[in-house]
Amino acid sequence: MTVALSRCLMKIAIRCVGARRRDWGLAMLGEFEASIADGKPLSFALGCLHGAWRMMLTDPDGRFALTSYALAVGLILPLAAVLTIGAIVGFPYLDFGHDDVVGILSFGGARPNLLDDGNRAAASSLSLAVFLLAGASVLIAWAILDRNWDRVAALERFTAAATLTLIVFVALLGFDETRMALPILAFVAQHVAILVLVRWQWCIDRDTANTQYDSGYS
Q1: What share of the chain is helix, strand, coil (3-state, %, to 5)?
Q2: Structural domain count, the chain
Q3: For residues 189 and 79, is the Cβ–Cβ distance under 8 A?
Q4: If we measure between CA atoms, which residue out of 96, 93, 114, 117 comes closest to residue 105?
Q5: How does pLDDT run across 155-172, given as a tens digit for each residue?
Q6: 108 and 195 assigned to the same domain
Q7: Which of 51, 176, 207, 213 has the most crowded CB, counting CB atoms within 10 A?
Q8: Which domain holds residue 119?
């Protein structure tokens, strides 16, 4: 059990340092096998993981990875959770009055339905649109961590189209457009974060290419 846990920690440590520190990872794997024979695999694996995290803070690519995880887990996924809960409680076709976000996301009390008998069938479509926005945000977070920027761009286009469709739908139903502030703010925050990451990734790739060129030229 201890050896299996230690191997998992070693895989995480090597994944953290990435391709730039591949030689370090291979060397640590060799020493890890020796630590198993010595009966201290867990302490060695924990030391490697600690060292990998320290290297990530000093390496531009490592800092980028940490920031990507922070944005995905700390911003995009919470926004997806808020949209999901909003769809469950009846956003945007229930009237929440002047409630704040906490009031909107609370499940207590009945809310007036803004739909009448003529357009009540639109409730499922509205909820589906919000669920799709939430699901797209989850996929965007996953694509960011994979650094699959083509997929991120495609999902961003889908999110923009879904948000615009939802806005038009709400306007046609005669709802107060301000209730669309939540998905709009979610899209804007998500889009700005992605633009920052793409720009940062471009700078890292440029600096890496320049370094390799200078090394080859010298």
Answers
A1: 80, 0, 15
A2: 2
A3: yes
A4: 96
A5: 989 988 888 887 777 777
A6: yes
A7: 51
A8: 61-217
